[in-house]
């Protein structure tokens, strides 16, 4: 069996869906096909993230993340409001645990100012008014434009409201490139141009096109715990992150339905879909990733050794909770529920430098564009990021 399409998109996460949305606006007479290996859209990171719409103050000016987060926040907010998708505009505070983290507070404020983010530097008294249960050392940051949504609902709405020239084929696994065809587990698909938004497997798809061979994916598992009292907080509460790594640290999220949860962790995964120790095990991936992590551990690239030890300790429920308790004045550590569904961060690693890639990465190959690193805040940035991806690829259509 074979099919024909003008544009073929691999992956029905938020980035793939947003690319299809943009293509359908620009090329309304072209056939657009999305293939997704799972039975539904947003099955992986796009549906398992914290649901936070970020404001854009974590990222270096000039980076793609900085360029698109402020615009993406507005665009996603407008989309939710226009389509009746619930939004919680709760805002966020970033707090310092001691004097050593004040420089981080000031650096985040500087980045926010450069990126055009509405961001207030506040003192302890102001913090007490904005979020009474958060505690800080002298200074904190207040981000009024940070909010939360249900990411699965957003993705589902996009997927269910495409025009007629867009098709999503579920249960379609990209297997290989064969001349002018992509071979899936069910058919061959002839295409004129391909967009790779395959998330955890974007590097593998790209390498079929001889693109991105210097990269590989290192999975990091994010686990969450819900708190049983919704009145614990009014806003998100975050720590000052280690700005040398692309992780924001364990924090409190106020969800769209007013619940409170802590997480996510950044625990090194042992295979790409290592959500638990029972399902989706892949022996080849396990051996490949363990070997890669052993090398990172041995040479301690990007301080991987201490990161791994620290994050693995968070499998200990008591330790995980106690770490989060450092952000608040009052917390009943016995008032947490059972673990929520975990997520996997598809973090790109440069094999040549043994460094984590901090920014988004978009590369081009024969009749193809490959989104190789679309980690957080990719959900927030999805609409303007997709516009950028499509615009950058147009010169390759011929």
Overview in brief:
The chain has 398 residues and is α+β, with helices and mostly antiparallel strands.
Outline the structure in words.
- With 398 residues, the chain is an alpha+beta fold.
- The chain is 31% helix and 25% strand.
- It has two domains: 154 residues, FAD/NAD(P)-binding domain, CATH 3.50.50; 137 residues, D-Amino Acid Oxidase, subunit A, domain 2 (D-Amino Acid Oxidase, Chain A, domain 2), CATH 3.30.9.10.
- It contains eleven helices and 22 strands.
- Strands 1, 2, 9, 10, 11, 12, 21 and 22 form an eight-stranded mixed beta sheet that branches. Strands 6-7-5-15 form a four-stranded mixed beta sheet, sandwiched between helices. Strands 18-13-19-20 form a four-stranded antiparallel beta sheet.
- The longest helix has 19 residues.
Q: What's the CATH H-level superfamily name of the largest domain?
A: FAD/NAD(P)-binding domain
What is the averaged pLDDT score? 97
Using the 3D structure, state the CATH architecture of the largest domain: 3-Layer(bba) Sandwich
Q: Which spans of ≥5 residues are poorly predicted at pLDDT below 50?
A: none
Helix content: 25-40%
Main sheet specs? 8 strands, mixed
Overview features:
single chain; 398 residues; alpha+beta; FAD/NAD(P)-binding domain; D-Amino Acid Oxidase, Chain A, domain 2; eight-stranded mixed beta sheet
């Amino acid at each position: 069996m074979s099919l024909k399409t003008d544009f073929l998109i691999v992956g029905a996460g938020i980035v793939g869906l947003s690319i299809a949305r943009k293509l359908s606006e620009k090329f309304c007479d072209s056939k657009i096909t999305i293939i997704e290996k799972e039975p539904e859209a947003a099955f992986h990171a796009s549906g398992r993230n914290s649901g936070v719409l970020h404001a854009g103050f974590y990222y270096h000016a000039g980076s793609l993340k900085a360029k698109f987060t402020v615009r993406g926040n507005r665009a996603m907010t407008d989309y939710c409001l226009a389509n009746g998708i619930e939004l919680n505009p709760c805002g966020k505070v970033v707090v310092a645990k001691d004097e050593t983290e004040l420089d981080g507070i000031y650096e985040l404020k500087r980045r926010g100012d450069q990126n055009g983010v509405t961001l207030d530097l506040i003192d302890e008294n102001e913090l007490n008014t904005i979020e009474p249960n958060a505690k800080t050392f002298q200074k904190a940051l207040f981000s009024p434009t940070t909010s939360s949504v249900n990411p699965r609902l957003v993705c589902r709405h996009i997927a269910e409201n495409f025009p007629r020239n867009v098709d999503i084929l579920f249960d379609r696994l990209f297997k290989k490139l064969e001349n002018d065809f992509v071979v899936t587990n069910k058919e061959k698909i002839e295409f004129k141009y391909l967009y790779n938004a395959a998330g955890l497997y974007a590097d593998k798809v790209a390498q079929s096109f001889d693109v991105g061979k210097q990269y590989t994916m290192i999975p990091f598992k994010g686990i969450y715990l819900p708190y049983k009292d919704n009145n614990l907080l009014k806003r998100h509460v975050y720590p000052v992150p280690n700005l040398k790594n692309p992780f924001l640290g364990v924090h409190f999220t106020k969800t769209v339905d007013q619940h409170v949860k802590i997480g996510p962790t950044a625990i090194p995964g042992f295979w790409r879909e290592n959500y638990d120790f029972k399902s989706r095990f892949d022996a080849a991936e396990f051996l490949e990733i363990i070997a890669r992590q052993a090398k990172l551990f041995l040479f301690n690239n990007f301080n991987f050794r201490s990161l791994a030890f620290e994050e693995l300790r968070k499998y200990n429920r008591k330790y995980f909770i106690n770490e989060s308790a450092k952000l608040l004045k009052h917390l009943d550590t016995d008032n947490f529920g059972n673990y929520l569904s975990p997520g996997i961060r598809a973090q790109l690693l440069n094999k040549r430098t043994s460094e984590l890639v901090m920014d988004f990465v978009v590369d081009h190959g024969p009749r193809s564009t490959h989104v190789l690193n679309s980690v957080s805040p990719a959900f927030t940035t999805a609409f303007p990021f997709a516009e950028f991806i499509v615009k950058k690829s147009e010169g390759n259509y011929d």
